[in-house]
Every structure is written in C-alpha cells, then in structure tokens.
TrEMBL record:
GO terms for biological process: endosome transport via multivesicular body sorting pathway; late endosome to vacuole transport; protein transport. This is Uncharacterized protein. InterPro entries: Snf7_fam. Belongs to the SNF7 family. The lineage of its organism: Eukaryota, Metazoa, Ecdysozoa, Nematoda, Chromadorea. Transmembrane segments: none annotated. The gene is WBGene00104821. It comes from the Eukaryota. GO terms for cellular component: ESCRT III complex; multivesicular body. It comes from Pristionchus pacificus (Parasitic nematode worm).
Amino acid sequence: MDEAMVILNRHIKDAQEERLEIKEEFFSNDVFVVNDCSYLAKQLGRLGAVIRRGHVSKVQILGVILALNDATERMEKTGEIKASKGVVNSMRCLVNAPGIEVLMREVNDDMVEIGLVGEDNDDDFIVDTQNDDEDMTFDNVINQVYDLIKNDLSNLKNEVLKYF
C-alpha cells in the first residue's frame, strides 16, 4: 500500500470509531476540488467494478463512500466538493488497472448505475450520491458493493496487485 492509502486507512478507523463521522483532518491541505457530484459518483462506480473482481478490501470501499458522503455534504454548504487527493488518485490507479472494463449509465444528476461490461444487468446497482434514501445507508451501499466480490475471482490480474 502506498502512503496515501495507509493514511486513508488510519482515518477510516478513526471515522468508524465515531459512528462513521469523518474527522476534519481526513481532508489535509492536499485537496482535490470538483464542481459537482457526478465526478465522484463515477469514480465510485469505477471502483465498484474493481471491487467486484476482488481487488479491493471492504475497508477501502468504506473510505471512498465516507469521502463521497462528506463531499456531498460540503457541496450542499459551499457549492464545491473537496476530496483528498490520495482518495482520488487511489481511485484513478484502480480505474487504470489492466483488464478492467466498466459500464456506467447516469440515471440522473445524483445517481449513477454501474456494472461490468459483459455481465448480467441483474448485477448492476445504483449508488445514490445524496445518501438521502433510507435504503442507501453506508452499510447497505457497502454490502451491495462488497457482495459482488463473489464473482470473477478467477479473473484476477497479477499486475493489479502492485497497486496494493
């Protein structure tokens, strides 16, 4: 794991102890700013596809979901989304991992449907970036994503492991 992921994991543990509330120090001076929810929603979608292939731990997806939730709350208050560069860069290296193809369809401004190319549509799922639906709690989102690890473990690419 690179230094950014080690730092991320430490803050995730802190956040879990505080009932999934992110601490301010999670967002260091090294900040990545985007103007709308859809960017982070799509990054989360791409990460979800990699998780389905078993390349990412439950703790790591929890960190991304926590960051996404905090970012949407900040957007409502300030009109901007701020997310740690370490989180965004970790997602980017996952997106660029060999052998990963992702199908994503925007449902509306706040939701994105994701799945792997060539997979049954039954396995697609929707991430609500506003987290205002009773069924889209942290635990439910994490479990929906993590349950998909069961498929395609035989297709793991050794090159992907160097990212962790």
